[in-house]
Design goal:
Layout (H helix, E strand, L loop, with lengths): L1 H9 L24 E8 L5 E10 L3 E5 L8 E3 L1 E8 L2 H4 L3 H9 L3 E3 L13 E4 L2 E6 L4 E17 L13 E20 L7 E4 L4 E13 L2 E17 L9 E16 L4 H4 L3 E5 L5 E5 L3 E2 L5 E2 L24 E2 L13 E2 L12 E3 L5 E3 L3 E2 L5 E2 L2 H8 L4 E4 L8 E8 L16 E5 L14 E6 L9 E9 L7 E10 L7 H7 L2 E7 L4 E6 L6 E12 L17 H6 L1 H19 L1 H4 L10 H10 L19 E11 L5 E12 L2 E6 L6 H8 L8 E9 L2 E2 L8 E4 L11 H12 L6 H14 L21 H13 L5 E4 L8 H15 L4 E6 L4 H5 L3 E6 L2 E6 L4 H7 L10 H10 L1 H7 L18 H8 L10 H4 L9 H18 L2 H20 L7 H20 L3 H18 L5 H32 L5 H28 L3 H17 L12 H4 L6 H14 L3 E4 L7 E5 H8 L6 H24 L6
Parallel strand pairs: 36-41, 36-42, 39-40, 40-41
Antiparallel strand pairs: 1-5, 1-14, 2-3, 2-14, 3-8, 4-7, 5-6, 6-9, 7-9, 8-9, 9-10, 10-11, 10-12, 12-13, 13-14, 15-16, 17-18, 19-20, 21-22, 23-24, 25-33, 26-27, 26-33, 27-28, 28-29, 29-30, 30-31, 31-32, 32-33, 34-35, 34-37, 37-38, 42-43, 44-45
Length: 1215
């Protein structure tokens, strides 16, 4: 507001106390005839001139200016240059021409050449009254109304001139002459307490100055330095000659003069001044009340409110005795801060006259609180000095409306308890400065009232730079500033909140008018009588400014995370539909012959990297050898798990590893599969395939089936194997090949009869048998055409028949050229007979290595005969379980600890468990610790496939998602009933806050379902990540996408469908959108946080407990339960870490900021039309930070997503 008013003030010209009326002619004498007279105006904002005073007789004494630091002082006025005969547009058409004229010896006078050198031509010192004191002698000196006649003679400096000088800049020498014409001095002292007044008198001063002249297009600027006006003033006392004195007064500093070339002064007078208009073009700057190219069209008037206070104008207050200059909209291009002449009057001279009692009464034809409402046409005619006027009463503005007054009543509005009746009125002036308007608009509206708390200190809220439209009642103003008649520090906070804010005025057909000042604590709505003065021939320019907030910016920002989620889901769906021949078709199966199988198989060989030893042609001769394999746990009590175990396994054979629990079977299988954990183990030995040593990079050629395979129960057998094929076959494999490999793998394990059956095994979903389940896991490994297939106890938990079928299928598989090794706990005779080679382990040492048929004779040779009725397999396990027999069979061998065994924080109990191959939590459990280095599928394929798998799971097992959706619907209806149609009273405001915090809390705590979901998938994800199906972070992204869309955002839409309208929340589309987007972003952010906490926790109970604590702390710091302003500083900062704080602040601001409440407390007067912003201030919520809070909420979602990724990538021990 200060900026706008300062610009208005810069364009004002009135030098007297009273405003210049439209029908008055300016006092500047332009009788110079047909001459070019150029005006140079003192730019007071760029000038710096100070007045000093000292006494030399009878005693030397310095006088100090009272309150110097608060005094805005300087000189104001104009100098004039007679440039020659003719029009200025011909004599000095450009700035360069004018500069040349100045350098040729110009004389600038403070009066117009040829005119009266009296008051109109004075250079005035402001403020009009200044006080000096001499505390040492208790003397006060007041100087009043100083005015000077001045001249400035310019010339080029003498001496040599540089050649090639720039004619756009010039250094001139000058002589400044000054004669004091007006002024009075009042002195008082201890000797003369009543004081004496002396005329300042005429005192001449001459001094040399330096002048720097510069040109910018048509503008010429003169910077006068060493400005010095010294006056020696004698005082002859009427009391006693002893009191006669001599004083020196000096004006010191520098001044800046601005002139415009090509300006013809007479073309704009008497109602304007020639200057620069838009685009730096020469144009008339009109006095307030006039417009047009030559300032000859009446267009308004300068009211008492035009100047406001100097504090409003961004200037220091004028001292006592000086008044703020009325700044008409466009007359002066420089600031005229303080006027110096005239007496202050409490009556508005345009509308009021003083009565005999000293009060103010309305002039004939006017009425209203300050007599600004016209009643008859004649009143407007007297005001504008023309009979072409009319007084109208329409609420709509006409193009001829110059001034409109609103006189408003308060009965029944609820405002009578806030505003003093009879003090509420509004005035609007449509005046714009010049044809087509200008950069600085002179139009304004002034809202005036007195609060009940301060009935004798009325408030004026001035809305500047207003736009009016013909045939409309709406007025939109860019900037508002409010002040009191006297100081009102209690209202400073309110005034600061609306400083510079826009305002809108509008009325309906019932004359009920709304005065809406943004951020004001109450919206002023009252019935008003409107009157207006219309001037024929005047036409205001329709304003283009409208107070319109882009209400869709915040919803769009809040929707960014949700847009990303939707975009990712749509993209993945598009990929799935694009590859529907892969994901939604089982293809056509062509049984592979030996001729057609070879190319496909070779394409899938992990070792097909140029090593002929591993080519398909040599599969039948491949041998897997392991030599001196030793594995030990590095702990406080070191334990050898495998002790120098050696052996071989050949292609086209099934090799079995037998032994009791804890014998090292699982460890040996893990070691051979290159998936053993190295974090807590010391490993030595070697493994070779043919002539090639195997390492961690060779997991691609090894198919590994863990002891307890975990499969998704809602997929069919075919979909499960195909899922493995999509992710593990070479990149670029077409749909036909994927389906071919899938069916081939199913056929190898004899599952083609159940390929359309669900895997099942959990809940109420019935699926395939246990044996078939184990074979599915084998088929998943066969899609990569591995050379080695390792299985950890694939028959455990199966009945004899199922177990035999599994081994039989493996036997058939081995005949295709694979090396098949499986561990067995207690094989049946039929299973044992199908083995081609068997190893018997006990306590990490090998007791037997050979053909199954030779085991009996081997034991018999050592005095161990098979009891009648027992199978050889059972007897071998009994021998391996008897310590004495073990010692007998391993005579001469002792268990050794590797030389490099280290220590780690694993207790003895942990070691025992580690050695037990049946322990699912063993440190040697490779499904939790190993990684693979080779992956075939692209990131997009991994995401699309995980989305497809999760989508099928949701469709076929919809219990959880239906629970979310039905619970959201039920709670939406229930909460809508509890908060049904909240009102606009005190309880309504509270209920709105309660309903919104409930919605946030509901969706925050439902995010805990993530915990169970993640832990249910833990085993599956662990095995698949280790098996190279997909990357760890790909799983996290898919989880965030699916969880965020279907379990977080969609339930919000379902919940809000009944809740929002039943509660009666704001139905404006942008408000509805912001509510949904903010609540959605909040929900997905909390879901991402829950995912991060789950990944960081060891158990589901631990994750739920931590997440509950986090949510409760955040909820407590949301701003709903306690006002943050009342919290101690050392803890109040926690709210900035609370996701609830940002979500709640945005939702409550979105809901109540545009509402008007009626605050009613029993026993007290109701306050109506209280803005929602006031309620937000009570809650300690800053409504101006809404956009920032939304951005922070978006950033929190991004941070929580990154935290989920980071935690999962570092959670090897838990996953």
């Amino acid at each position: 507001m200060r900026t706008a008013l300062s610009l208005l003030f810069l364009l004002g010209t009135g030098l007297g106390q009273q405003p210049v009326q439209p029908n008055q002619i300016g006092n500047i004498d332009t009788s110079g005839g047909n001459e070019c007279i150029v005006e140079f105006v003192i730019d007071t904002s760029a000038s710096a001139v100070a007045l000093t005073a000292s006494v030399v007789q009878p005693l030397p004494l310095n006088l100090d200016m009272s309150n110097r630091e608060y005094v805005n002082q300087g000189i104001q006025g104009s100098f004039y240059l007679r440039a020659g005969d003719g029009r200025c547009s011909d004599v000095v058409p450009t700035g360069a021409d004018l500069l040349e004229e100045l350098g040729n010896g110009a004389l600038l006078l403070s009066g117009v050449p040829g005119g009266d050198p009296g008051a109109p031509g004075l250079i005035e010192y402001y403020p009009s009254n200044i006080t000096f004191t001499a505390p040492a002698v208790d003397t006060t000196v007041n100087v009043w109304d100083l005015g000077f006649n001045m001249s400035l003679a310019l010339a080029l400096p003498t001496g040599p001139r540089p050649t090639g000088r720039d004619t756009e800049e010039e250094q001139l020498s000058g002589e400044l002459r000054s004669v004091s014409e007006e002024g009075d001095v009042f002195t008082s002292s201890v000797i003369v307490p009543q004081g004496e007044t002396f005329p300042f008198g005429e005192h001449s001063s001459t001094n040399s100055v330096l002048v720097s002249a510069s040109v910018n297009m048509s503008s010429v600027v003169l910077n006068v330095t060493d400005f010095n006006v010294t006056m020696m003033v004698p005082y002859a006392s009427e009391v006693s000659s002893v009191l006669n004195s001599l004083a020196y007064y000096r004006l010191l500093g520098n001044i800046v003069l601005r002139g415009v070339a090509g300006c013809d002064t007479e073309s704009c007078t008497p109602n304007g001044r020639c200057g620069l208009g838009p685009g730096d073009q020469v144009a008339c700057q009109c006095r307030c009340g006039w417009s047009g190219m030559s300032c000859d069209i009446q267009s308004g008037y300068c009211s008492e409110y035009e100047g406001g206070s100097s504090a409003q104008l961004g200037q220091l207050s004028c001292p006592v005795g000086a008044v703020a200059t009325t700044p008409g909209p466009a007359l002066s291009a420089v600031l005229q801060p303080c006027a110096s002449h005239g007496e202050d009057s409490r009556c508005n001279p345009l509308f009021e006259v003083e009565n005999e009692e000293g009060g103010c009464i309305c002039k004939d034809g006017f009425s209203g609180p300050r007599c600004e409402a016209c009643q008859v046409d004649a009143a407007c005619a007297r005001l504008y000095g023309t009979n072409r006027t009319a007084c109208g009463t329409s609420v709509l503005y006409s193009s001829e409306t110059v001034f409109k007054s609103y006189t408003c009543g308060l009965d029944g509005t609820g405002l009578e308890s806030v505003i003093v009746p009879g003090t509420f009125y509004v005035t609007c002036n449509t005046t714009s400065p010049g044809e087509g308007g200008a950069v600085t608009d002179g139009s304004y509206c002034s809202v005036n009232f007195a609060l009940q708390q301060y009935p004798d200190n009325p408030i004026t809220c001035r809305a500047a730079l207003c736009s009016f439209s013909a045939n409309s009642s709406e007025v939109s103003c860019r900037s508002t500033s409010c002040t009191c008649e006297r100081d009102c520090p209690d209202l400073k906070g309110i005034f600061d909140s609306i400083e510079g804010r826009p305002a809108v005025i509008s009325c309906d057909e019932r004359n009920e008018c709304t005065f809406d000042i943004e951020n004001f604590f109450v919206k002023l709505i009252a019935p008003c009588n409107t009157t207006e003065c219309l001037v024929e021939g005047y036409k205001f320019e329709d304003g283009s400014f409208r107070v319109e907030k882009n209400t869709w910016v915040d919803p769009v920002i809040a929707a960014i995370p949700l847009i990303v989620l939707v975009a990712v889901n749509i993209s993945l769906l598009w990929i799935l539909l694009r590859r529907r021949d892969v994901y939604f078709s089982q293809g056509t199966f062509v049984r592979l012959t030996s001729a057609t199988q070879m190319p496909a198989a070779e394409a899938r060989e992990g070792g097909a990297s140029g090593d002929p030893a591993l080519s398909s042609a040599s599969w039948g001769s491949l041998t897997l050898s392991f030599d001196n394999v030793t594995v030990a746990l590095a702990s406080r009590k070191p334990r050898v798990v495998l002790d120098s175990v050696s052996g071989q396994a050949h292609a086209c054979q099934v090799t079995g590893i037998m032994g009791p629990s804890g014998s090292g079977k699982t460890t040996l299988i893990s070691y051979l599969s290159q998936r053993i954990s190295a974090s807590h183990t010391i490993v030595s030995g070697s493994v070779t395939l043919g002539s090639r040593s195997l390492g961690g990079a060779d997991t691609k050629i090894i198919g590994y089936c863990p002891q307890n395979p975990h499969l998704l129960p809602t997929l069919t057998v075919y979909e499960t194997v195909m899922y493995s094929a999509i992710l593990r076959l070479p990149r670029g494999t077409d749909a036909k090949e994927i389906h071919q490999v899938t069916r081939e793998s199913i056929e190898k394990v004899r599952l083609d009869g159940v390929q359309t059956s669900y895997v099942g095994g959990t809940g109420r979903l019935r699926g395939i048998s246990g044996g078939e389940f184990r074979r599915v896991s084998v088929a998943m490994e066969l899609v990569t055409n591995p050379k080695i297939v390792l299985l950890d106890e694939p028959t455990s938990g199966l009945d004899s028949s199922s177990a035999t079928q599994v081994v039989s299928a493996l036997k058939s598989l081995s005949l295709s050229g694979c090396v098949v090794i499986l561990s067995l706990h207690q094989p049946s005779p039929a299973m044992f007979s199908m083995l081609d080679r068997v190893y018997l382990l006990a306590r990490g040492r090998c007791l037997y290595d050979g053909a199954p048929g030779g085991a009996g004779s081997y034991l018999k040779d050592r005095g161990l005969s098979v009891p009648p009725g027992d199978s050889i397999a059972e007897f071998m396990l009994e021998c391996a379980s008897d310590m004495q027999v073990v010692e007998l069979l391993t005579a001469g061998k002792e268990g050794k600890l590797p030389e490099h065994a280290g220590r780690c924080a694993v207790g003895a109990k942990d070691i025992e468990v580690a050695a037990d191959d049946e322990s699912a939590d063993s440190p040697l459990d490779t499904a939790k610790h190993s990684t693979v280095s080779h992956r075939d599928a692209s990131i997009v394929t991994e995401l699309a496939t995980l989305t497809w798998r999760n989508g099928l799971d949701i469709v076929r097992n919809p219990a959880l998602i239906l629970l979310h959706w039905l619970l959201a619907l039920g709670m939406g209806i229930f909460a809508g009933c509890v908060f049904f149609q909240v009102g606009l009273d005190t309880s309504g405001a509270q209920n709105r806050a309660g309903g919104l915090i409930f919605a946030l809390a509901f969706f925050a705590f439902t995010s805990l379902t993530t915990v169970d979901l993640v832990f249910q998938e833990k085993s599956i994800v662990s095995r698949e990540v280790v098996g190279g199906y997909y990357r760890r972070w790909t799983y996290v992204i898919s989880k965030l996408v699916i969880d965020g869309m279907f379990l977080r955002f969609l339930p919000i839409l379902i919940f809000s469908a009944p809740f929002y309208p039943m509660m009666g929340l704001d139905s404006e589309p942008s408000h509805v959108a912001l509510y949904l987007m903010t609540l959605g972003t909040f929900a997905v952010a909390v879901g991402a946080l829950s995912l991060a906490v789950t990944f960081a926790s060891r158990t589901a109970g631990q994750a739920s407990f931590i997440m509950n604590i986090i949510l409760l702390v955040c909820l407590l710091n949301s701003g709903f339960f306690v006002n943050a302003e009342n919290m101690p500083d050392w803890i109040s900062w926690l709210r900035y870490l609370s996701v609830f704080f940002y979500g709640y602040s945005v939702l409550i601001t979105n809901e109540v900021s545009g509402l008007l409440f009626q605050f009613v407390v029993e026993g007290y007067t109701a306050v109506e039309n209280v803005r929602g912003v006031t309620f937000l201030n009570i809650l300690g919520i800053n409504p101006t930070q809404t956009t920032s809070y939304i951005i922070i909420l978006d950033c929190m979602y991004a941070i929580f997503c990154l935290a989920s990724l980071g935690v999962f990538l570092m959670s090897d021990r838990r996953w």
